Amino acid sequence: MRSSSQYWPGFVLGLTGLCLSTVVLGSSTPYASEAVSGPELTLSEAIAKARSANPDLSIFTFRLKAESARLDAAGLRPAPEFQAQLENVLGTGRTRGLEAAEATFALSQVIELGEKRQRRVDVAESRRGGVEVEQQIAQLDVLAEVGRRFIHVAADQKQLDLTELATGLARKTLQEVQRRVDAARSPLAELHRARITLARAEVEHEHAEHELLTSRRKLAAMWGEREPQFGPVSAELFQLPQVGDYEVLASRLASSPDFLRFANEARQREAEIRLAEAKARSNIAVSVVLRRLEDSGDTALVAGFSLPLFGARQAAPAIAEAHSLREGVDAESNTARVKADASLFELVQELRHAITEAEMLRDRVLPQMEAALTATEYAWQRGRYSYLEWTEAQRERIAVQRALIEAAANAHQFRIEIERLTGAAVEGRRDE
After folding, report:
1. Are 51 and 57 spatial neighbours (Cβ–Cβ below 8 Å)?
2. What is the model's pTM?
3. What is the pLDDT of residues 141-184, one digit of tens each?
4. Torsion of CA 217, 223, 228, 234, to 10 degrees
5. Which sequence spans correspond to the domains of the chain?
6. For domain 4-78+115-280+312-422, is the CATH number 3.40.50.980?
7. pLDDT for 342-360, tens place per residue?
8. How far is CA 214 from the centre of its chain?
9. What is the torsional sign of CA 328, 332, 335, 341?
10. Under a CB-based contact definition with an 8 Å cutoff, are residues 366 and 198 in contact?
């Protein structure tokens, strides 16, 4: 079985495409917020923090210690038993006092047959292995959640930059409209519209700030911090991941911790079957008794043994139960594999769509919108376009940028979901 730490490097490697400098595509406005201060945070640093301090992972230290104690207990042999018995005392007549007392001392030992001790150890080891697999699954869950929240913060940073750009455009437009109204070149209604547009842009900017503060706090909570102690996250959101071949990805499902859990559970059920079968062979209890006869002052040894009858009959229900549970593991594993295959196929398709959308917006639509915005501004300033045409061009430019941010974030999110499902990295990025 692979140790829990072995799943971290590959998964981390699959997300390192985000651990780069922040770039605001199509805008020179740098990320800035008075509420955010501190050194930049990379994804690898966030993962390291979560791995060492995530509250959900700390519990496994104690669970593994408890399983180790159970393993030690399973390996213990039955303890010998000492018995003492005093007869014919404190009665009447001849048995008055201790004159006719008879003392009996017995030492007995249970001898286990059928390798029961080894079978108990096998079950305990498989149960400890089950906790280790649960730890691996929990670590991958934490890693995936860190990636999701990291991307969310990166996208919120871009959205805040975008609202700053929109506010700047609205403010610039208001100034220009004010000059045109003062020069009697534009109606007063356009000034009112420009002020409304600026007010709405400022509201959206404030909302974007609140969204970013919330997503930052959620990210910091992954390593137990109430207040984020880091600055902007460092991520190249627009460097898109590779899709990966579905068949290759599907072949990795069997080795993911989610399916290793079924393999370990199958081993545990098989160990329980062997233990139940071993219990069909009854244990022998051997005893040696020392008896002293007070009347004669003589002593004598009595040896004996006991053997429970019908052990196989008593063990039959437990054996049948163990076999049924073992067969249930196979059925559950097959069901989970079918569902995982379907989920993986859906995620691959969604990833392909998100990449296509982001590439189209980034490489074709956004450059054309930049050119159209520049041309529309030039024409509006010379009176060839109306105010509504100019503001509509601004809105379209902002909408395309927002759609690009969402599509790029979705692509990285889908990649994380695929890597979480398969337990392995998706190789490469589209821009490499």
Report:
1. yes
2. 0.77
3. 899 999 999 999 999 999 999 999 999 999 998 998 898 888 88
4. -90
5. 4-78+115-280+312-422
6. no
7. 999 999 999 999 999 999 9
8. 21
9. negative
10. no
